[in-house]
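WP5 quarterly update. Target: Aldehyde dehydrogenase family protein. Source organism: Thalassovita mangrovi. Length: 488 aa.
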Amino acid sequence: MDTYRRAAVPPQKLYIGGTWQEAQGGTLDVVSPIDGQKLTTIESASAADVDRAVAAARAAFEDGRWSRMAPAARKKVLHRIADIIEREALALTVLGVRDNGTEIGMALKAEAGSAAGTFRYYAEAIDKVYGEIAPTAPDVLGLVHREAVGVVGAIVPWNFPLMIGAWKLAPALAAGNSVVLKPAETASLSLLRLAEICAEAGLPDGVLNVVTGEGRVTGESLALSMDVDVLVFTGSGATGRRLLEYSARSNLKRVYLELGGKSPNVVFADAPDLDQAAKVSAMGIFRNSGQVCVAGSRLLVERSIHDDFVALMAKHAKALKVGDPLDLSSQIGAVNSDTQLQGNLGFVADAVKEGGEIALGGSRILESSGGYYMEPTIVTGVRPDHQLAQREVFGPVLAVTPFETEEEAVQIANGTDYGLAAGVWTGNLSRAHRMIRDIRAGVVHVNTYGGADNTVPLGGVKQSGNGHDKSLHALDKYTDLKTAWIQL
Ligand code: ADP
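Structure tokens (predicted):
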């Protein structure tokens, strides 16, 4: 690992049509959140650069070099991508961690490990998902074809670039599309390396293009393109809103949004093992410094166990070692950027002004390292209408609110604009099912928090977005249905 962590990272380029190119828009510095030092530069793609990438993707799609390749051959390429990701897992993950700050223990599984698994999952789907013959009258034949949509634009965030990148790329490529990928400014490096891996695995030139740069320039140009058929996105609600506007102002491209959450984690007094519930719940909010879209950032706890449970949470949270994300003993790494860190601290200060009390943490730590580290923070006395109960922090900050009854728990749980994830801790099976039914969210965890695999979809309701990543349902975003109606 030491070799990888010290390796010089050369200035990066754009990957367009199978070649590495300079942007007309200049370069951006990449600063490592581990120590605040400059790591390298990435290109800042202008509208003209993005247009070239979209044109390369369109040309590749139209000539059929990938879209009409035999499914079994496409499947082999995706498996090879997974093989190389596994072979390179450590180097790839360390590169990503130097860029985005996630603790290496988690990143190895959640980034390289999960990306490889995702490519395999959709590789296997390629020759197993196909069209239908409709039960029509006997003198006609109704065929329902499932076709690739064409050019997919994918804009991804910085918290899990490889994992979320793979959630978009693998099903899009499996279905035969070409892709233009726009990584986040503060987490481009591992995705640029993934482009090289895809080429080595035999993905034809032009099928995957990577354009780096700022959201308001590069991302906006991609979203405004007249030749992108579908735009898939994971990121903030504010950007999601803009993408819908860009679609309306351009070619009405379909837009699928996986936005944030303010996910309730509801603990009832009848939970089977409160200590275990506290331990898992602490990881459910604090891993990756809280920079997880499904993070259980609101703890709703039955009043009779409130004080005891907060004490248990504080015990487990305090035991989590925050530090250099490339030190294997660190359980929590760095916050992604200084901007993000200042935002987190601002949320805590505002919460105190609104009447919240800091039960644990609240501050920046390890400042002398030059990096961006924050201690796990628990704020109690947060009322459902407080900002900390309503707005996504995307940092290691937990808001705690007591409740008296199941009905009140549901009401508070549903009382935000978001609907991405939730947790319920109870030993009562009927209550667990009632909560699953009544909480408006894309995923409800019961007696655990945060786990899932490729077999189940992930997507939000309300202002947490639309459409799903993962599972065979994700293919719906990347395919069109075409009917053939044939008179016999
Ligand atoms: P966060 O606040 O978590 O950084 P963002 O929504 O700002 O979330 O970023 C997620 C991704 O969206 C990044 O790749 C970013 O560059 C991109 N992005 C940000 N603003 C825009 C925009 N106006 N148009 C297109 N993409 C954008």
